[in-house]
UniProtKB/TrEMBL annotation, chain A:
Superkingdom field: Bacteria
Cofactor(s) required for function per UniProt: thiamine diphosphate
Key words of the record: Thiamine pyrophosphate
Domain Transketolase N-terminal: 13-269
Any matching Pfam family: Transketolase_N
Tagged with keyword Transmembrane helix: no
Listed name of the protein: Transketolase
InterPro entries attached to this UniProt entry: THDP-binding, Transketolase_N
Family named by the database record: Belongs to the transketolase family.
TrEMBL record, chain B:
Phylogenetic lineage: Bacteria, Pseudomonadati, Spirochaetota, Spirochaetia, Spirochaetales
Record-given protein name: Transketolase
Keywords: Thiamine pyrophosphate
Family: Belongs to the transketolase family.
Cofactor(s) demanded: thiamine diphosphate
PANTHER family registered for this protein in UniProt: PYRUVATE DEHYDROGENASE E1 COMPONENT (PTHR43825), TRANSKETOLASE-LIKE PYRIMIDINE-BINDING DOMAIN-CONTAINING PROTEIN (PTHR43825:SF1)
Annotated Transketolase-like pyrimidine-binding domain residues: 5-172
Source taxon at top rank: Bacteria
Family annotation (SUPFAM superfamilies): Thiamin diphosphate-binding fold (THDP-binding), TK C-terminal domain-like
């Protein structure tokens, strides 16, 4: 798929998120937008997956460690054909297949149950080691937040993955510099992020997480690694794509008014 | 059929046996291979041992990833480092998605932790896991029963927890005795004055107490409840109906373990007088295994007296 088409999809996924949050009156739009381009690249270009065969043993795997960004992941799964787009508008409703945080048994196409922060790298490492044991060539991708790096278990997994030479594991760090309570600089101080992963023995790259060509290039570089797992630190913007959401951390979890909905959809190239 | 005198060896030997038959079994070690003398497993299956170092939360997360990819991971380390340190990982990433991960918790009870002291004596593991849906919880009585429990539980859908000890358990069952998965087992049936419900490495004491009670003319039943979850409620209710009173004996806090489980059956339509023996909402301390059980209310004499107390209340 060419870049223009991928960029169009990433706008579509953001519009889907706006529509979901607006209609169901719940969800995390800001954190969805900062990973929208990473998820677009993975689900529409990078990953070897097949929505008509969702349990394919050698499919690539994806773990959304920052599970609260799931609206955009749900949108990607729907647009990739795992379930009808209409289902998106049941987000967080009783008996919906779309739980507030990802729950794999209920949602076709989801590889991992997540939501509680800090766990996804370990789960991804388990999948990567399983592929090695099963002699499968599939790759495993994980997205963590930057605030999430405060969870100690991330670093347990980072040390173990490097020791295990899990070169089939790639972790994207969504470095939007915000967490629930403010900026990560103020609250948890994870910087310098790249040096930390490097010190843990990972192959590291720092890129613009909203430039899909950079994302694709970084993935290719990661694939060339034979010994080390890869960390791709993605500079991102929480709320990217909608002007009034950028720099306004209340959009971590907030519902659009009618007016905000119209503006957001318009800015994202939609027809209201 | 192996003859094993220790719960740790029982686990190790069963895992070796199962792994020879099935390619999906892997051992997840958090620097815990040595705990179960797992070197022979490593020699035979070097590619099926995943050594993660001392990181139990990570270990359970990795096990979740392995299981979701179709492997059958066994993660074995000290019971509390699993059920307390990695409690949330066991809940949210294994129990909730109902993944087939096998947890083997060592140092169960005061007997299991013995001289290590409280940080390594795990008296809460069963209680914690009882609150998690989907879990099967097994508390075998000795090494051979651990071996048999491993064989019996290998195909269970969803997570399984098997409690093991320090390796100093007394042999209770003859080699080859099957593990009664999901069912209670009456070990002694000498009348219906009182039922002694028990599990784990204290079963030998309960049998000893029952012999004394019998000599004193008490009609006693010894009932092993080695599957704590799912609980054989119907089997327990049938016993309670006959005896009208019971004693529970567990090397675990009496809160939310076997005593609580039996109390729930009693409260829900099977009235009986109950005496609960076990840790009375206190921690233990360092000591030799048998010495500890004696000091913390789980001596043979405590069991005999508990039975008499239960009978006395019932007759009044």
């Amino acid at each position: 798929m060419d870049l223009e088409a991928l960029n169009a999809i990433s706008l579509q996924l953001r519009r889907d998120v706006v529509e979901m949050v607006y209609r169901t009156k719940d969800g995390h739009p800001g954190p969805s937008f900062s990973v929208a381009d990473i998820i677009t690249a993975l689900y529409f270009e990078v990953m070897n997956i097949d929505s008509s065969n969702p349990d394919m043993i050698d499919r690539d795997r994806f773990v959304l460690s920052k599970g609260h960004s799931c609206p955009v992941l749900y949108a990607a799964l729907a647009r990739r054909g795992y379930f009808p787009v209409e289902d998106l508008y049941t987000l967080r409703y009783l008996h919906s297949k779309l739980q507030g945080h990802p729950y794999a048994p209920k949602t076709k196409g989801l590889d991992a149950t997540t939501g509680s922060l800090g766990n996804g790298v370990s789960i991804g490492l388990g999948m990567a080691l399983a592929a090695r044991i099963q002699k499968q060539a599939n790759l495993v991708y994980v997205v963590t937040g930057d605030g999430e790096l405060g969870e100690g278990m991330i670093w347990e997994a980072a040390m173990a993955a490097s020791h295990q030479k899990a070169a089939n594991l790639t972790v994207f760090i969504d470095n939007n510099n915000y967490q629930s309570g403010g900026t990560v600089s103020e609250i948890s101080g994870p910087y310098p992020i790249e040096d930390k992963w490097k010190a843990f023995g990972w192959h590291t790259q720092s890129i613009d997480g909203h430039d899909i060509s950079q994302i694709l290039h970084a993935v290719e570089k990661a694939k060339e690694e034979r010994e080390r797992p890869s960390a791709i630190i993605c500079k991102t913007v929480k709320g990217n794509g909608v002007s009034f959401m950028v720099g306004e951390n209340s959009w971590h979890k907030r519902v659009y008014t009618d007016e905000e909905y119209r503006i957001a959809m318009k800015e994202l190239g939609g027809v209201v | 059929m192996s003859s094993v005198d220790s719960t740790r060896i029982g686990f190790r030997d069963a895992l070796l046996h199962l792994a020879k038959e099935r390619e999906d079994i892997v051992f997840v070690s958090t620097d815990s291979l040595k705990v179960v003398k797992g070197e022979p497993f490593l020699e035979v299956f070097p590619d099926r041992v995943i050594e993660l170092g001392i990181s139990e939360q990570n270990g359970v997360g990795v096990a979740s990833g392995l299981a979701s990819s179709g492997l059958l991971p066994y993660i074995c380390t000290y019971a509390g480092f699993l059920t307390m340190r990695a409690c949330e990982q066991m809940r949210t990433f294994v129990s909730y998605p109902n993944l087939k991960v096998r947890f083997v918790g060592a140092n169960g009870g005061l007997h299991g932790g013995n001289r290590e002291g409280v940080s390594h004596q795990f008296i809460e593991d069963v209680g914690i896991l009882r609150t998690m849906p989907n879990f099967t919880i097994l508390c075998p009585a000795d090494g051979n029963q651990v071996y048999q429990a491993m064989l019996a539980s290998v195909d269970i859908e969803g997570p399984v927890y098997i409690r093991i000890g320090s390796g100093r358990e007394e042999k209770v069952f003859p080699d080859g005795t099957p593990f009664p998965l999901g069912k209670i087992r009456t070990l002694i049936d000498e009348g219906s004055d009182v039922a002694l419900f028990c599990h784990g490495f204290i079963t030998n004491r309960v049998i000893e107490a029952a012999k004394q009670l019998k000599e004193e003319g008490v009609g006693v039943k010894v009932v092993e409840v080695a599957t704590i979850k799912p609980l054989d409620q119907a089997g327990i209710a049938t016993i309670l109906e006959k005896t009208g009173c019971a004693v529970t004996i567990e090397d675990h806090t009496i809160i939310n373990g076997l005593g609580s489980a039996i109390a729930e059956v009693i409260a829900e339509g099977n009235p009986a007088y109950l005496v609960r023996l076990g840790l009375q909402d206190v921690y233990g301390e360092s000591g030799f295994p048998d010495e500890l059980l004696d000091a913390y209310g789980m001596s043979v004499q405590d069991i005999v007296e508990g039975a008499k107390r239960a009978i006395k209340h019932t007759k009044v």
